Amino acid sequence: VNPVDLRLYGIVDPAVGRGRDLGALALEAVAGGCTLVQYRDKQAVTRAAVEQARALKAALDGTGVPLLVNDRVDVALAAGADGVHLGRDDMHPADARRLLGEDAVIGVTLKSAADADGLAGLPVDYGCVGGVFATASKPNPDPPIGLGGLAALVARARAARRLPVGAIAGIDAANAAFVIAAGADGVAVISALFAADDVAAAARDLRGIVDRSLASRGALA
Amino acid sequence: VNPVDLRLYGIVDPAVGRGRDLGALALEAVAGGCTLVQYRDKQAVTRAAVEQARALKAALDGTGVPLLVNDRVDVALAAGADGVHLGRDDMHPADARRLLGEDAVIGVTLKSAADADGLAGLPVDYGCVGGVFATASKPNPDPPIGLGGLAALVARARAARRLPVGAIAGIDAANAAFVIAAGADGVAVISALFAADDVAAAARDLRGIVDRSLASRGALA
Description:
The structure is a homodimer of 221-residue chains.
Chain A: E1 8-12, H1 22-31, E2 36-39, H2 46-60, E3 67-70, H3 73-79, E4 83-86, H4 93-100, E5 105-110, H5 113-118, E6 126-129, H6 146-160, E7 165-168, H7 176-181, E8 186-189, H8 191-194, H9 199-220
Parallel strand pairs in A: 1-2, 1-8, 2-3, 3-4, 4-5, 5-6, 6-7, 7-8
C-alpha cells in the first residue's frame, strides 16, 4: 500500500473549469492546500488527453502533490502520472496494478456494501465513497447516499481493510465538516474548487474545514 | 519493423457484428483466410473492452493471426494483444511504442500526403490508407479519396519508407481487385466480412481476390 493524502482531493475536469487552463487551476488548488489531484476527462480523444495529463504533471512538478488519471491507464503511463482512479466500469484494479507497477497510486470508487467489502482483495491504496450528495459535475443514476450512507460505507470499508477512505459528490464548504465527522479521511471536490473564481481561496477554505474537523474527530476519539 | 501480413485485415466492431459473438466471428474470418484482426469499439467502457479483447485473443490463440486493438494501448496491454492501430486522434505512435515495446505491431492511418511523408519518422510497422470509398461502418467527415487518391498516397508512403501499406473504407468483393491494382498490399474490411451471413465464405472470397490481384500485379511488375 502506497501512502496517499486524501484530505483535499481536487478533480480537474475541463467540463467544470470554464475554459481556464487546467494546469494553472491545479496549481492554484495546490497553493491553497490541495493534497492530491486527479485529471478526469470523459470527452477528450486519447492524444489530447495525454497532452493534457502531461501539462498537468509538469504544472505540479516540484509541489510533491501526485497526479492521478481517471480511468485511463494508457494516459497515465504515457504522461508519467502517479496513478489512476478507477470506477466500476474502468479497468479492473488488478490489471491496472500489473501495468502500472507497485509504486503507482491506485484508488477505487465505493458505492455499495459489496464495493466496501471487496476492498479486502484489491491491490489498491485508497477508496473513495461516491454519490454522497447530489452533484451537477457528473451524471449519476443512483440516489445520493447522504451522511448516514457515507458513515456506513466508511465503517464497512475500514472493517474490510485499513486504507484511507475519501468521499465525493456534492461536497463543498457548507457540508465538508459533516463528511469528516461521518468518518471520511478527506473530501474529493470538483465544482467547489474548480468552478470558483478564486480557486486558491476556495482550497484554503476547504482545507481549513477539513483540518479542523479531523482535529476535532481526533480529540473525541 | 515487425513483419505484418495485411492481405486480409478484418476489423471486428460490435456495431457491425449484428450481436453475434466477436470471437466466433473473428475465428470464422481467420478460417476463411483473414491474416490480421483488429478489435475496434468506440462505445465500450474500459472494463468491458478489456474483457472483449481478452476473449478475442483467446479465440485467435493457436491460429498465428495477431490481434491489434484500435486506439487503446491500455486495453491492448491488459489483454495481451499483439499491438494497436492508431489514428490521428489516438496516442502518438512514439508513446505507444515506448509503452508496448519493440515486438508490438503498431500501425497508423494515412489520410493525407503529410501523413504519408510522416511515416519516415514514426516507429510503426504498417500504414493503412483511410477513406478510400464511402462507408457506413464509421462516421467520416472527409470525402472519399477514391482509387486515384489511394494510388497517390500509397506511392508517397512507399517513397517515405518501405512498409506494408493497406487500404480501408468501403472495400468489398466488387472493388478489392482495384484497390490492390492501385498499389495496396491488402484490404482492411469491416462490413464486407462481419455483416455477412457467412463470414468464412466472405473471407475466402475476398482473400482469393486479393491473392489473384497481388499475383497479377507481381507478374506485371
